[in-house]
Design a protein that fits this description.
The complex is a heterodimer of chains A (312) and B (371). Helices cover 34% and strands 29% of the residues of chain A. Chain A is of the alpha/beta class and 312 residues long. In chain A, strand 12 and strand 13 form a beta hairpin. In chain A, helix 3 packs parallel to helix 5 and helix 4 runs antiparallel to helix 5. Chain B has 371 residues and is of the alpha/beta class. Chain B has 15 helices and 4 strands. Classes of the chains: A alpha/beta (312), B alpha/beta (371).
């Protein structure tokens, strides 16, 4: 697997504030690579440096064979970019937006006709070509924006929180498109703060306060979590959470749906003891089950291990 | 510079500008309405001055003087009284702008050749109108005196007979002077309005970021934004010049080529200025305020309303950096003095330098904010 993106010690400071702090990673061709972290973790700043929108303070990044700091123009022809801010022109029609992007990237003639048809089909908006983009439902707009971003068939696609604000169904449909693109050889770099969305990525970078706290496949990341997690079924989960707040051997207790998820100290992996604690507080436990940690659990555990507080 | 990219941007800008009916009205309706408004309302000509007369003499001569004053359109008598105090009161209330007080013995002094006296009282709170009214009134009264003297056979010829003639605007109509200048203001306003918000709006919407990750260069982007607005502003120029000539009968004595050349350079300067404002502003509001802060001094220091020659030296020097000043000079030269391209090379060159300067600054600034 050849590297589509190579990043070494990439740093960006804004005055005294370090938004991205000596970040290093590699992304292979055709990979879907995710940046996961809360707002302010440095995901967007990292993406902006990789797309040439923001010059790095130090460090280097080679994207699609091009040094980001040296050949910004060269780089731009080889990447597609879609940001959380909705970037199509609402006062232009679907066709006019497509035409604009085609013109900007030099997609002309027969190639444009072919790519236009592809984008309309991909976004599922055939027959809507003459409608103003502002009038389209958000899910359609998002898919059209994706179509515009890859109209010139870039080997690399950057998505900065592409699905904020859309419903889960539309998000699912959007990710189907991303898988299709990746299967066709496009490398996709995507930032998100939706944990479930991160699960779709081949590989992930967990970022917190400008630094990488872990990277790997979702399954690997889950393996990083040494603490066992149990799901407890009780009648009054919210009150039960309270009862466990400062209990010995309990790292964390949180609501998960109607159940109670409890992270235990690995040294004291004694769920039955927790059942007794809950019973003593007047909460009968109807069932205990060990569960796989979610990426959110991993994230929280890693941040705590670093001694920091999680700020979301 | 890539033609496909520039063309794509031009088409996009043009479509956005022409899509919104409100913007369309602003672009093509507003200049016409404003020219009409300026053409009719902004006039420094003094007509129908409300006047009060106190005639203590009550003779044929004194009545003839009153008739002479009202013979033209300049004065309108709204008050006649036989007490001088009434004039003061009417002036205080703003009922009249000028009072004429004819003392007793006016006719007999005239007849005796002793030199009759008439008092004029003017409301000086509007100094412009007062000065002009005073000028009209004294001329009428002097001519009246001469006529009376000749009629009574007295020789008052003093050897000097002053006859004035105003060149380029024989009847000294302020409209003839103002309308070409209004063309300059309208073009500035339109060019600024259509560009000052254009970049910053895209920055706020996030579409600018999208453009900047594409292979578009700052120069191409600026051109893409300039060309459609330049064409629209030029159409506005044609509209208002046509209106000025056909409706207001402003003589267009000079070469049309010279006018278009001057207007072209001036429009470019204004567009560059608008784009510069747009690139230095972080929000649309900020851009709007900057535009207005710039507009007012640009108009005041242009010689549009207040002659540059009467400004303090410092401000006179300041006007040299004002493109509006140069364009007004150009447009009046061409319209009224019949100038051709060769007569106006210097101001043309100055505008060309200004246009190049602001465009250079806008592109440089743009490159800096994005890089």
């Amino acid at each position: 697997m050849s590297a589509a993106v190579e990043v070494r010690d990439l740093t960006r400071r804004f005055g005294g504030f370090t938004a991205v702090d000596r970040v290093s990673f590699e992304v292979g061709t055709g990979e879907i690579f995710g940046f996961l972290g809360p707002n302010g973790a440095g995901k967007t700043t990292t993406l902006k440096m990789l797309t040439g929108l923001l010059p790095p303070t130090s460090g280097e990044a080679v994207v699609a064979g091009v040094d980001v700091a040296q050949q910004a123009l060269e780089l731009r022809a080889r990447i597609g970019y879609m940001s959380q801010k909705f970037s199509l022109y609402g006062d232009l029609t679907v066709d006019e937006n497509l035409e604009l992007f085609a013109g900007l990237y030099g997609v002309t003639g027969e190639r444009f006709a072919r790519r236009r048809a592809w984008a309309l089909h991909m976004a599922g908006i055939e027959g809507q070509e003459r409608r103003l983009t502002a009038e389209l439902p958000l899910g359609w707009k998002q898919r059209l924006a994706l179509g515009c971003a890859v109209l010139h068939e870039p080997p690399l696609l950057f998505l900065d929180e592409p699905t904020s604000g859309v419903d889960p169904m539309a998000r699912r449909a959007f990710w189907d498109l991303i898988y299709e693109l990746a299967a066709g050889g496009t490398t996709v770099l995507v930032s998100t703060h939706y944990m479930e969305e991160a699960e779709y990525c081949h590989r992930l970078l967990l970022m917190h306060r400008g630094r990488i706290i872990a990277q790997g496949r979702p399954a690997e990341l889950r393996g990083l979590m040494a603490e066992p997690i149990y799901s407890f079924r009780t009648d009054h989960a919210p009150q039960a959470v309270e009862a466990l707040q400062h209990a010995e051997g309990v790292r964390e207790a949180a609501l998960f749906g109607r159940d109670l998820h409890v992270v235990l100290d690995p040294e004291r992996d004694e769920p039955e003891r927790v059942r007794a604690l809950l019973a003593a507080a007047g909460h009968a436990v109807h069932g205990i089950e060990q569960v796989e940690p979610s990426l959110e659990d991993v994230f929280v555990a890693l941040v705590r291990r670093e001694g920091g507080a999680v700020t979301t | 510079m890539d033609r496909t990219r520039i063309l794509a941007l031009v088409r996009k800008e043009a479509r956005q500008l022409l899509r919104d009916p409100k913007t369309k009205r602003l672009m093509f309706g507003a200049p016409i309405i404003q020219l009409l408004m300026f053409g009719y309302a902004v006039t420094t000509d003094v007509n129908h001055v409300p006047t009060g007369i106190v005639d203590h003499d009550q003779t044929q001569q004194s009545r003839a003087l009153a008739d002479a004053l009202t013979a033209g359109d300049y004065f309108r008598i709204v008050l006649r009284s036989d007490r001088s105090a009434d004039l003061g009161r009417a002036l205080d209330h703003g009922d009249i702008l000028m009072g004429v007080d004819i003392p007793p013995g006016f006719a007999s002094d005239l007849a005796a050749g002793r030199g009759a006296r008439v008092q004029l009282i003017l409301d000086g709170s509007n100094s412009n109108t007062a000065t002009v009214a005073q000028g009209y009134a004294s001329r009428i009264i002097q001519q009246f005196g001469l006529r009376q003297a000749r009629a009574t056979g007295l020789s008052l010829d003093r050897g000097v007979d002053l006859r004035t003639r105003a060149w380029f605007n024989p009847s000294l109509l302020s409209r003839v002077y103002n309308v070409p200048a209004v063309v300059g203001l309208l073009l500035l306003l339109m060019a600024l309005l259509l560009t000052a918000l254009s970049v910053v709006r895209e920055r706020e919407l996030g579409t600018l970021e999208q453009l900047m990750v594409s292979p578009v260069t700052p120069g191409e982007l600026i051109l893409g934004k300039t060309i459609p607005v330049a064409i629209i502003t030029f159409i506005d120029l044609l509209l208002v010049v046509t209106l000025a000539v056909l409706w207001f009968h402003i003589p267009l004595r000079g070469s049309i080529l010279a006018l278009f050349l001057a207007a072209g350079l001036y429009i470019l300067t204004a567009l560059g200025l608008g784009l510069f404002i747009s690139t230095i502003s972080r929000t649309q509001q900020e851009a709007f305020m900057t535009m207005f802060l710039l507009l007012l001094p640009a108009i005041i220091l242009s010689g549009f309303m207040y002659p540059i020659m009467t400004m303090p030296a410092f401000f006179q020097h300041l006007t040299l950096f004002n493109p509006v000043r140069w364009f007004l000079e150009l447009v009046r030269e061409v319209f009224l003095k019949g100038a051709g391209v060769r007569d106006i090379l210097l101001p043309l060159a100055i505008l060309a330098v200004m246009a190049a300067g602001v465009f250079g600054a806008a592109v440089a600034r743009f490159r800096k904010t994005l890089g």
